[in-house]
Amino acid sequence: MKVSAVLVAATAATASAFAPAATNARSGATELNIAVAGKVAGVRKSISTLTKDNFSSTLTEIEPFLTQEAGRTIYTKSLRRINVQAKALGVEVPAGYAKEAKCTQKRRERQDAYCKAKAEEAEAAAAEAAEAEAAAADAEVEAAADVEVEAEAAAEETADEPALVEA
Prior knowledge:
Elements: H1 2-17, H2 31-48, H3 55-69, H4 72-89, H5 105-160
Helix pairs in contact: 2-3, 2-4
């Protein structure tokens, strides 16, 4: 009886040893990650195989991926790699190539808002400076008028007093 209990326990332990382990729900090998990795690999491969002949056509093929699907890191690395390849081949990347990327949209919006706020601040500062300059000019005109009035008053006083003649 004791032998059979040990035998049952041993078989239960060995059977559970061959059971599949619980999978991690956040594993990196999901279908979505494989699909994106395949696209990224294709884009990187096409960037590394750029030549003068296929430069513009390859950029046209890559641009939709860079503007719509690529994340910020892949986007910046890809643009850097494209620029390095362009410099090595002696060609230029078109101005504004892939600048309207989805991954940089929020950053561009924040930058635009910041630039607008700074422009408004500069306009307000310029308006205040113009007002201060106008006020200073008005004060200068008033001061000049006061000096003239005082000079006229002093001239009238000296004209009203009889001149003292020394004998």
